[in-house]
Write a structure and sequence with these properties.
This protein is an alpha+beta fold. It contains five helices and nine strands. Strands 3-2-1-4-9-8-7 form a seven-stranded mixed β-sheet. Helix 3 crosses helix 5. It is globular and about 45 Å long. InterPro entries: Aldolase_II/adducin_N, Aldolase_II/adducin_N_sf, MethylthioRu-1-P_deHdtase_MtnB.
């Protein structure tokens, strides 16, 4: 089997996984219309990612609605990945993540505008869902200013990374969350969104 054939098979499998994840997020109202994007690492050397295709309804994705990209987020082969593929690739390079979730939630936009310096959380049982052994911790969810330049946005994200918080809010936009695999990234995204909804409800 050639490397190209193996990559194609891996890409199709990854596409099926990402389609299922996207359908779940869309059912929550976190990926309305064509908003949001997901990625999954296929190889580390060289770095290759499967990224959801641009302009597709995230509640209706199929296994073929995914694009292979390189370590900079550029397409390798046919298709056009999300415009934010470069940021997914940068998150992977910085954190060693195996999957990245980007969703547009109301709570993330509200809290990004309300707390542009970051959103602190302390003493909450749900923090265990981010890998903390106990609720007796204090963590901050970083907030960064938005930009259409993925290089600039990546610089802001890199500068804002916080230990123990696998997520960043992009003000006026949404959240990026990552994990070792799609399942962990999904669980963490759900935890982060719960925290944001709690913060928004507190006013």
């Amino acid at each position: 089997m050639t490397e190209t054939t193996a990559a194609a098979l891996d890409l199709e499998e990854a596409g099926a996984v990402l389609a299922a994840e996207a359908a779940r997020f869309a059912s929550f109202g976190w990926m309305r219309g064509t908003s949001g994007n997901l990625s999954l690492v296929l190889s580390r050397h060289p770095l290759r990612l499967a990224v959801t295709a641009s302009g597709r309804d995230k509640g209706e994705l199929t296994a073929s609605d995914v694009v292979l990209t390189d370590g900079e987020g550029a397409a390798v082969g046919p298709g056009r990945p999300s415009a934010e593929a470069a940021l997914h690739a940068r998150v992977v390079r910085l954190t060693g993540a195996g999957a990245v979730v980007h969703v547009h939630t109301v709570a993330s936009v509200v809290m990004g505008q309300r707390s542009p310096e970051g959103i602190p959380f302390e003493g909450l049982e749900m923090l265990k869902g981010l890998g903390h052994p106990t609720h007796e911790v204090s963590v901050t969810l970083p907030v960064i200013a938005n930009s259409q330049d993925m290089g600039e946005l990546g610089e802001r994200l890199e500068a804002a990374l916080e230990p123990g918080m696998p997520a960043v809010v992009v003000a006026g936009h949404g959240i990026y969350v990552w994990g070792a695999d799609p399942r962990e990234a999904r669980h963490r995204a759900e935890v982060v969104e719960w925290l944001l909804e709690l913060a928004a409800a507190r006013g």
